[in-house]
Amino acid sequence: YVKSINDQFGILTLAADVTHDAGGRLVYKPLPFVVPGGRFNEQYGWDSYFEALGLLADGRVQLAKNMVDNFVYEIKHYGKILNANRSYYLTRSQPPFLTDMALKVYDATGDTEWLQGALSAAITEYLSVWTCEPRLDPTTGLSCYHPTGIGMPPETESTHFDHIVGPYAERLGIEVSEYKRLYAADAIHEPELDAYFVHDRAVRESGHDTTYRLERRCASLATVDLNCLLYRYEADLASAIDEHFGGQMTTDIGVTTADEWRKRAEERRVAMDKYLWNEVKGLYFDYDVELKEQSAYESVTALWALWAGCASHDQATRLVDAACRRFEAAGGLVSGTEESRGRITLLRPNRQWDYPYGWAPHQMLAWCGLYAYGYASVARRLAYRWLYTITRAFVDFNGVVPEKFDVVGMTHRFQVEYGNVGVDFKMVPREGFGWMNASYQVGLTYLTSHMRRALGALTEPEVFFARAGWSTDASASHTPASTPKPVPVFAMADARRLRGNTALHCALEAVLTTTDNPAYFDLPLTAVDDDPRSPASPGDSDSTADNSDTGETGNKELL
Description:
559 residues
C-alpha cells in the first residue's frame, strides 16, 4: 500500500487540540511544532528530540510538549514514530528517544497523567517496532535498523541511484530510466538490488544517512547507537514507573512493572557487553548478526553508552580515553576515524556521517554522558570546541548556522553528498538549523563564565586551554554523585533517573569506594564548585545565578 502512494508525497496529519465552539461546531487546532530547517519542513524523528532539548533549555515547554504529543499520535495512528510525517515514510522510523523526551517535558509540567500516556505509547512502540521482527535479532537479543519498505526510497533525487542501477540496466540492454520504471512496477525482479535497498532504507532509518560504516550492511548490524537507545528506554521506564507510579503502571496493552523493565535493561546490557564491547580497544562496536562478528568501524556513537548509562566504571574509563584519542578534533567530536572511513577517490566519494564531519547530536549526547560519569572537564572542553566552531562561522560568514561542520578543518564550506543545509543563502538566514541551534543553547550551560567570555572574544580552543591551564586529557574530574558548577541544563534530573540504572550504579559505587565515600544511593546530589581540573581565571566565579538550569543569563551575555 505504501509503495502504491509513493508518488503522492502526502503530508500526514499530526495531533491537534479538538474542542467545540459556543455553537457546538468542531474546532480543530493542529499543534505547532519545530522543523529542522532548510528543505526539511516536516516533523522529523530524532531531530525533534534534540530540538526539544533546546526548546526546554529556553523555556519553550509547550512547543516541546506538542512534539511529544505528535509522536504519541504517530504511534497510535501510524504504528511508529515516523522518519517524518510524510506518506512515503510510513514504513520507516528513526532513532528512538521518546522516553527521555517525555520525561524532560514532565519535569517542566509535572503532569503525571500526561506522562503515563506518553510512556504507554513508548512501550507500544518498543514492543511492536524495535523488539520484534524484522528489527530484533533473536540470537543476540539485540536490535537492528530494518524498515519494512521495499524498492528505491522515493524521497531521493531522480538520479541518486543511477550508478547502482546502471550495471543491471546494461545487462538487459535498456536505459537506466526504463529499468527503474520496470523495477518500481515489479516487472523486474533482482534479489541483489532488493537487498541493497533494504540496507539503504535501514541507513536512512538510522538517521546516519549516509556513512561507510553502514553502507550495504545496515539491516544486518546491531548498532551501538540503537541498542544504547533501547537500553535507555528500558532504564527510563524502570525508574519512571518506580518514581511516579508506585512500581507498576497501566498501559494501553495492560499492566507493566518497573521490575520487568529493569530485567530487560540488564539483559540488554549483558548482550551489549558480549557482542558490542571490545575489551582490546576499549570501545563499543556494531555487531553484524549475519556474519556473526564485530564491525571494525570506529564510531563516535560508542560514547552513547555513557548517555544511556550502560557502561561500567572500568568500561567508562577506557571508553573516554579511547574516544578522546580517536574522535576529539579541533572543532568538536568527529563522526568516525579517518582509518575507518578509508581512502576517498572519485569512485568512492566522502559520506556526510564519516570523517571529518561532526554533528550536533553526537556532541550533545557525549557531553551529557561524560558529565554523568564524572568527566565534567572533558564535557566542557568538547562543548567549548563545538560552540567555538559555530560562533566562528556565524561571525565570519554573516550569520550562517549550517546543518553540520568539518570539525577537523573547522569549516562549513565543503563538498559532500546532499550539500550542507543552511549555507546557501543570498541574505542572512534567520532560522539556523534545528539541532545546531539546540546544541548551542544546551552547550552554553556546560561552559564556565570564563569559557563564555573567551567564546565571546572568539578565543581559539587551543589558545584558551593553554592560557587557562585547562585539562586536555581524558581524566575524570569529579565523583558522579556530585554536580560541579556550572550545572548543565537537565543534569540534576538525569542524575536522579540514572540512580535506578544498575550498570551506572555499579560504576558510581566503584568510584566512590576508591575514595572512601559511602554508597552512591546514600549520597544526596550536590552541586559543588568547579572541579579542580576546570580552572577559572583569577577572580572568576560561577554562581548558580550565572548559569542556572536554563542557562539564560549566560546565553544573553554571549549574544
